[in-house]
Amino acid sequence: MAETRTPDSTRRSERSRRAIYDAALSLVGEAGYGRTTIEGIAARAGVGKQTIYRWWPSKAEVLLEAFLERGGQAAESDPALPDTGDLEADLKQVLRATVDELTDPGFEIPYRALAAEGVINADLGAQFVRKLLEPGLQLYVDRLRAARDAGAIDPDVDPRVAVELLVGPLAHRWLLRTLPLTHAYADSLVEYALRGIAPR
Amino acid sequence: MAETRTPDSTRRSERSRRAIYDAALSLVGEAGYGRTTIEGIAARAGVGKQTIYRWWPSKAEVLLEAFLERGGQAAESDPALPDTGDLEADLKQVLRATVDELTDPGFEIPYRALAAEGVINADLGAQFVRKLLEPGLQLYVDRLRAARDAGAIDPDVDPRVAVELLVGPLAHRWLLRTLPLTHAYADSLVEYALRGIAPR
């Protein structure tokens, strides 16, 4: 029980938790999701495997929470999309940063594994969407609502659908590896999409 | 060797091939991709498992070719997108049909399994894209080129990127199950995207 824990034991389990997240992300990156086991994560994190089983039902949940913590840290430092008043510039900046993240091997390999697992495992997919994906999409929705209030986009446009014009093609190209994921592509998406939702 | 085959043995192996495709699609639909084995496919198709191993290196390739044959049959009967001269109506018709296909359980479950396998297995993913996905996207590109020649879209627009404004959000919503995949959503995508690529 948390109440009976000393500050020291709380610090120790916090340290274990972070070590487990780091171990899960690096192992999946090196060996692939299929060859990553709870035992392997425990060994690399320097904890007993029962510690992991006590906290998480499966390696998929360990990985999901590792990304949640990473995303949570990013959100604390920068909880909203930039709003300089120039919607096109702001969206290009965010979409280019997303391209950089999705093509960084240390991020890409485990994130791709988690996304693929969610594609076939509906329960995990629902958690992935609810905890990890939708909060990020909501930041775009908020930015587009602000733009709509400022008269920069058509008042009849559904911001949630408009967001998908930006992130859907990016995810499609990334997940299926159809064509290169570049800043130029991100810029084109922003330009086409913004013309599509401009005031009439 | 094919040259020494009698018409009867050619018919027999053609029949076996189709039985194997049907068995693979139905078994993945019922049991899931992970629990489908070459042995299971062979038993349901009424062939020896060596017959499958002789023709395909893995169950993923069996499934991919099953979809290729299905797609090939569809393409023979209808090799291009409709071109009534009304681009918006034509695209809505095709995108609605895609929604219907992606939400038909008999198609969805095995197709989703194949797509997810391609997300993590780069070799299979490349085959999936080259053989199955890109030929279908090319039909959209052809239709958009015809529309561009007819003055219905901006001559500076890259049709291959424009296609992704339509199919990317659809695939995103379908693969990640973020929100319902409906005809109304397909229609919105066509409307937003066409405004985005309209002549200036």
From TrEMBL, chains A, B:
Any GO molecular function: transcription cis-regulatory region binding
Protein name, entry field: Putative HTH-type transcriptional regulator
Residues within the DNA-binding region(s): 37-56
Organism for this UniProt entry: Streptomyces hundungensis
Domain HTH tetR-type: 14-74
UniProt entry tagged with the keyword Transcription regulation: yes
Lineage of producing organism: Bacteria, Bacillati, Actinomycetota, Actinomycetes, Kitasatosporales
Keywords: DNA-binding, Transcription, Transcription regulation
PANTHER family linked: HTH-TYPE TRANSCRIPTIONAL REGULATOR RUTR (PTHR30055), TETR-FAMILY TRANSCRIPTIONAL REGULATOR (PTHR30055:SF148)
InterPro entries: Homeodomain-like_sf (IPR009057), HTH-type_TetR-like_transc_reg (IPR050109), HTH_TetR (IPR001647), Tet_transcr_reg_TetR-rel_C_sf (IPR036271), TetR_C (IPR011075)
